[in-house]
Amino acid sequence: MLRPQTFNEVRTGERTVSCDSCQRILYYVPGQDTVTTAVAASTHRRRAHPKLDASRAWYYRSDYDAAGEVFLSYINADGNSSRRVYDVHTGRKLEDTLVREGEYRLGFPEDLPGAIRLNGNWSEEELEEWGDELPTVVLDILQRDLNLARTEAANKSQAHAAEIPRSEHSAAS
Q1: How far is the C-alpha of 82 from the C-alpha of 116, rounded, in Å?
Q2: How open is the CA angle 88-56-109, to the nearest 5 degrees?
Q3: Residues with Cβ within 8 Å of residue 64, at least 6 apart in sequence
Q4: Cα dihedral sign for 148, 116, 36, 51?
Q5: What is the 3-state secondary structure (H, E, C) of the chain?
Q6: Which residues make beta-bridge pairs with 80?
Q7: What is the distance between the alpha carbons of residues 98 and 61, in angstroms, rounded to a whole number?
Q8: 100-129 pLDDT, tens per residue?
Q9: Dist CA 158 CA 55 (whole Å)
Q10: Phi-psi domain of 131 (left: phi exceeds 0; alpha: psi -120 through 50; beta: other)
Q11: Residues 6+ away with beta carbon under 8 Å from 164
Q12: pLDDT value of position 110
């Protein structure tokens, strides 16, 4: 059994991690991770799109202040919205939870330009229970959805680029 933080450090492979008990070097084998395998097996060809008016929202930002890549979690409740910021690679919470008046689009408008909306619907109670680190399965789900969103955006971009020459050709003839 590993602490979630230790498991995430092993999984990222950015540095050598040793077992606290026996001092063996720990390493990650993706094919043997049952949670990751189950998540990968459940991948759909089409990505589900989150509802725009949902009271809970997750976003990805590639350039959030000095932190770089982050997941942003927003929850609207009782006329206020809360924001949590997590590192994309480790799932660690980077800042204190910030609460502002109004729903999150009005309370945190500076966060949304350039952000990618992700699927995620975890409650305030779950986020509080997790503390300062996302569970590995949640981190995997968010990263998988981010990859699907990027693929979808690339496919749309290619389809749009393919349509432009046809319309220019039609206008010329």
Answers
A1: 18
A2: 75
A3: 70, 72, 85, 111
A4: negative
A5: CCCHHHHHHHHHCCCCEECCCCCCEECCCHHHCHHHHHHHHCCCCCCCCCCCCCCEEEEEEEEEHHHEEEEEEEEEECCEEEEEEEECCCCEECCCCEEEECCHHHHCHHHCCCCEEECCCCCHHHHHHHCCECCHHHHHHHHHHHHHHHHHHHHHHHHHHHHHHHHHHHHHC
A6: 77, 101
A7: 17
A8: 999 999 999 999 999 999 988 899 999 999
A9: 33
A10: left
A11: none
A12: 94
The angle formed by the CA atoms of residues 33, 11 and 128, to the nearest 5 degrees, is 90
**Residue with token string 């060809």:** 45
For range 53-68, the mean pLDDT? 89
Write out the two tokens for 98: 């910030």
- For residues 47 and 40, give the distance between their C-alpha atoms in angstroms, rounded to a whole number: 13
124 neighbors 75 (Cβ within 8 angstroms):
yes
What's the pLDDT band for 36 if we cut at 50, 70, 90? very low
